[in-house]
Amino acid sequence: MTLPPTMNAMILTGHxxxxxxxxxxxxxxxxxxxxxxxxxxxxxxMNNTDVNTRAGWYSKAVTGATENATDETPDGNDPSWxxxxxxxxxxxxxxxxxxxxxVGDGVDAARIGDRxxxxxxxxxxxxxxxxxxxxxxxxxxxxxxAQYCALPSRNALKVTSDLSDAELATFSCSYSTAEGMLTxxxxxxxxxxxxxxASGGVGGALVQLAKRRGARVxxxxxxxxxxDVAKLGADRILPRAxxxxxxTLGGEKITVVxxxxxxxxxxxxxxxxxxxxxxxxxGAIAGPMVDLDLRTFYLRDLTFTxxxxxxxxxMPNLIRYIEAGEIQPALAASFPLQELVAAQxxxxxxxxxxxxxxxx
Length: 360
Prior knowledge:
Elements: E1 6-12, E2 21-28, E3 36-45, H1 48-55, E4 95-103, E5 115-118, E6 121-123, E7 134-136, E8 148-152, E9 156-158, H2 165-168, H3 174-184, E10 192-195, H4 201-212, E11 216-220, H5 226-230, E12 236-238, H6 245-249, E13 254-259, H7 266-271, E14 273-281, H8 294-299, E15 303-306, H9 314-324, E16 331-336, H10 340-348, E17 355-359
Helix pairs in contact: 3-4
């Protein structure tokens, strides 16, 4: 296969608002280095990491919600998920669905033609379990907001599915994040899981994956999105932020809260956890600064788990769930790659229920 010397790509030039993106039609083609594959990107999902990284929201100097991050200035020392400066220019986009078109040295040529989705986490080949030596596709290396992307072969996971490219591009980040959270919290059929923000990509994945584990699931979302959330299989759906959550829940006993929202409502979520309950978190789109009464934490024997770098078994499990039809994509909308700014604006404004993808 003859590959072109250049490609279309959306380039992030620095931290800030969406004007930091630049559209290029002549960006140099990547090459597959030793141990890598070159992927023709067919679709790429959008997630909060893309927004947060662009805005520098991960910096401790930023205290507001994700949609307001650019109103504050990151201090430059810790603007990425890993707390380190990024190299620019950068091509973002971790949730890739595509086809392997070339391989680097040491990679079996039989991989050419594989349909793949990404394991977003870049790991140290000498110790795949070392979470201190990890990177993220679209952050520490270029990602899928382009026509082509070079990835370590182990991060390009073969998938066999009748789902469309856009549908498959919804799984890598949202669903692996959700499965990682549920794994850390050790969710089983004995649990009742409360999911704030259930209309979002991760929230919707939490609903499906917790139901797959046999748990009872109570979703929280704005009432305009209840019909869409119902399709994900939640046992009950509540308003986004009931004034009296305990009364609204009635006799429900919440053993797990799976949260990517945070913000001012956070103490209410902690207060309704049963004794011995677990809170698991992988985001704070409504704001990272929260109030915690330590007495609630220790007197109620609660367990808090943060979840970022997923365990090794998460992505192979997701591939198995996808191929068996045990989970379904929640594709909200797709945009041409050159309209990424419009796509991200819609994503931030939560105009849709589920995941948004871009198509090169």
